[in-house]
Amino acid sequence: MSAQRSLFLHCKEGNLSEVKHIVEVKDIDLNVRDGWDSTPLYYACLCGHREIVEYLLQNGSKCEASTFDGERCLYGALTNDIRNLLRNWKQIHSTGKKRDRHYELLRHMLEEEKLCKDILFNVHGVEINAHRCVIAARSHFFSEALSTHWKNRSTVALKHEKVTSDAFHAILQFLYLGRVDIKREIVDDVKRLAHYCNLQHLSEEILSADTRMSELFRLKPNMSCRVKIVTVESETSFARLATDLRYLAESTLPSRLRSWIEVLPFPEYDKRPSFYPDVCVEVEGEIFNCHKVFLCGRSDYFKALLTDHFQENKSSTSASCPIIKLCHLTPEIFKNIIIYIYSEICDFHSLNDVMDVLPVADMMLLTGLKRKCGNVLSQHMTENNIVDMYRCSQMFNLLNLEDYCVEFMAIELESLVESEEFIELVVEEANLVQCREETDSIPLIDEIRHHITDATSTYGQMQQSCAKLMKLDAMLARLGLEC
Fold it and tell me: How far, in Å, CA of 130 to CA of 145, rounded?
């Protein structure tokens, strides 16, 4: 059964664990539609599965007011509890932006008090911890302050009467996440502090959100007393966050690998100091100056290394940072790993890059990077490499790539049935079925048959599908694998 069909089925039946597995492992589009123009969210609402409704909304399912999908979900919801959830969600989460594991890491870094944080701000008695590397990479103001009058200080007291703890925390939220939720009563305080910290883009975003809200209140005066929070977020802010984190990743690299920095059109970046590394990774004699919070937050492999579970972890006698020595990979491969860990960006210039990174991502337990590798591979399938692609998808548990491979096989079946590699693959798949009898099916063949018949809607397509199925059956008969 395809990933899409499985998602629809489990949303109808209320299997939350299976829905999570499909979303997190197969990286499927949650706003996909079936033959009745319905989404997974609609079926979850219709069948009364509140937990699945909430999970789908949290991960990017669209349900906006005055749209077909939004009103249909609201009308079809089985319970008032689900209707209230949809209404409240539409008011608060207008963009429906998917929150992935990278975003969750940044949120966890912001909210967890002792997560490798190395500087403490005391704002009128309220203590707020932060990471030097993040705030320095995100703000020229903080970078300058940390290298001058805050240099070598682990605690900074902010005593100015117009700097409030709530406003300062809002600034940090924007620096970490690229978005911020501001209480209406402190909007002016945050504007003032953003201006003081030279965060011009944040000031502009707040002004834009404030203007939209004023227009809303003008048209619907009764909304004024209901709206308590101003949400500031935009694609521009998220793009800037990705750019800054990419630069932070580049700062960890050996100098010969920093080609991206040299072409940056931003002169202020050249003035920034190193970003306070606290762990070094050695690869073939080259040193990467990294940050534990990113390595451990993204990879259980590095978390184990840094908690001294393996012999590769050793302390340096000549430097303050511990050193991890990695073998069986090149600095160029590890550069791609680091850039992904910090910024969620992949720098693949060829299929060879993808194939080099994939086994390392698997070893380092970077599931998201494996999925991205699979997505790139799915765009380069041909009749000559489809069998290798399929085997690769199984070796590294890339379920989405496997689904693409089977779909490609269904499309190109008429030529593949004459391919020795494809025939060998079918025989291997048959042998994997333990104690197979003549009536037992072969999973790969079942999936190919499903893809052949699933897209059939016209008489001409039906004839083509029948021709393909006859050729498939003929091949199986020659192999003695009738099923």
Answer: 14
Cα–Cα distance for residue pair 383/414, rounded to 1 Å = 11
User: What pLDDT, on the 0 to 100 scale, is given for residue 323?
Assistant: 87
Of 255, 314, 275, 303, the closest CA to residue 138 belongs to 275
Confidence of residue 364 (pLDDT cuts 50, 70, 90): very high
Count of CB atoms within 10 A of residue 255's CB?
A: 7
Residue 422, number of CB atoms within 10 A of its CB: 20
Q: What is the mean pLDDT of the chain?
A: 84
Give the sheet arrangement for strand 279-283, strand by strand: 286-290, 279-283, 323-326, 313-314
Say if residues 418 and 441 touch (Cβ distance below 8 Å): no
Q: Is 70 exceeded by the pLDDT of residue 94?
A: no
Report yes or no: 412 and 404 within 8 Å, Cβ to Cβ. Answer: no
Asked if 25 and 399 touch (Cβ cutoff 8 Å), the reply is: yes
Cβ pair 337, 366 in contact under 8 A: yes
Contacts of 86 (CB under 8 A, 6+ apart): 45, 53, 57, 63, 70, 73, 74, 77
Q: Measured between alpha carbons, how far is 136 from 367 in angstroms, rounded to an integer? A: 29
Round to whole Å and give the CA distance between 59 and 96. Answer: 8
Task: At 321, list the tokens.
Answer: 């940072």
DSSP single-letter state for residue 128: E
Say if CB 346 and CB 372 are below 8 A apart.
Answer: yes
Collect all residues with Cβ–Cβ distance below 8 Å to 390 and sequence separation of at least 6.
402, 405, 406, 409, 425
Domains assigned to the chain: 3-98 (1.25.40.20), 102-232 (3.30.710.10), 240-378 (3.30.710.10), 386-479 (no CATH)
- Encoded tokens for 202: 């944040």
pLDDT digits (tens, 9 = 90+) for 281-322: 999 999 999 999 999 988 999 988 887 544 444 444 444 678
The pLDDT > 90 percentage for the chain reads: 38
Say if CB 250 and CB 263 are below 8 A apart.
no
Q: What is the pLDDT of residues 75-87, one digit of tens each?
A: 889 999 998 888 8
Under 8 Å between Cβ of 325 and 311: no
Pair 390, 402: CB distance under 8 Å = yes
Distance CA 386, CA 408 (A): 8
Rounded-to-integer distance, Cα 177 and Cα 233, Å: 9
CA gap 476, 423 in Å, rounded:
9
Distance CA(399)–CA(469), nearest Å, equals 24
Instruction: Say if residues 276 and 136 touch (Cβ distance below 8 Å).
Output: yes
CB 395 within 8 A of CB 373: no
Confidence band (pLDDT; 50, 70, 90) for 100? low
